[in-house]
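Example (one chain per record):
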Amino acid sequence: MEKLRLKAPGKINLGLDIIGKRADGYHDIKTLMHTISLYDELTFAKAEKTSLICDDPDIPGDTNNIVIKCVLALESHVKRELPVAITLKKNIPTRAGLGGGSADGACTLRALNFLYDLNVGLEELCEAGKGVGADIPFMVRGGFALCEGIGERITPIENTFSYPLLLVKPNFSVDTKAAYDFSDNAHNQPNCDFERILASLEKPGVCEARNDFEEYLAAFHPKALEIKAELYESGAFLAGLSGSGSCFYGIFEQTETAQRAAEVLSGKYPFVCTQRLCDSQGALIDHKGLIIK
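Predicted structure:
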């Protein structure tokens, strides 16, 4: 069978509250997630045994990789082997808070569902994947949603947006577990105003997307918080930290404004990238334009 070539789009968090640590060690959160146009590229083909080859030598190709974990999780769910040869081209920076690993895992679940004609529904795919990564249920669906619990309780938001977006990542990454551990003893600020964020997207007006993980950055990488201020100064009407970081985003009304901001900031930070908010509606598009439902 011909290889299936798919795009796995990332996400940003428009505000994030850490509600608290649960008895099982996970953390309850509340956040808005929106799909973005930056994507990893994967190919899938049936094979005698499962393998993963990635263009980034620092990314493991074994069971430590979320992609392989998702293959194993779906095999367990459907109680059959699903051997597949996978290649992965990384465009989404790792440990940035943009959901690259979860995007790849969600893409893998949907690709296997298609390749092996499993007829597993989206809810089942989410159930199979949520034990691998808390962001995977959202990534399976895509679009725009309010995510609660550990991220698996999803309330889709009908209106999605296509504003230009500027992503800025400083020269360090964040370990998500370390950031959560720090939050257990942090004195978080008042809750994020998600209603105001939604209103700002509907009718652009300057608004803060507060993220509890910013306290971790304030303690260990305080200068990184200057990025958020720089994005506002450059014309963003909404800016914030995505996930646990270390990538910040700025949302702009006009593409030209975002591009000018990129020109200014690209001399200061190693990763500066103009993208857009987008509505994937949970669909994955292959190289021939086929929608993988």
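Caption: The first strand starts at residue 4 and ends at 21.
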